[in-house]
Write a structure and sequence with these properties.
Strand content: 5-15%
Low-confidence stretches: 12-17
Number of domains: 1
Shape: elongated
Structural class: alpha+beta
Order of helices and strands: HHHEEEE
Strand order of the largest sheet: 1-4
Number of strands: 4
Largest sheet: 2 strands, antiparallel
Mean pLDDT: 76
Helix content: 25-40%
Number of helices: 3
Radius of gyration: 20 Å
Length: about 80
Amino acid sequence: MKWLVFALLLLPGAAHAAEPLGAISALTAGKAPLSLSLQVLLLMSLLATGVLQGDNRGKTYVPAETSPDGRVTPGHFE
């Protein structure tokens, strides 16, 4: 999702100084555009997600499994 937003920001004419997420607010045609403060909050939350997300590269995901008695073991990375 965050790559989609960044791609929209990089499109020519999609973003300009007055409206950083112009393409996103244009998708809400007929509705009030997103305020600049809301756009900045959205952008900052996307950036924070990318920075603070844990790195699981090189790990193998073991999916959840059910045992014969019906209990479910949670999925995890090894």
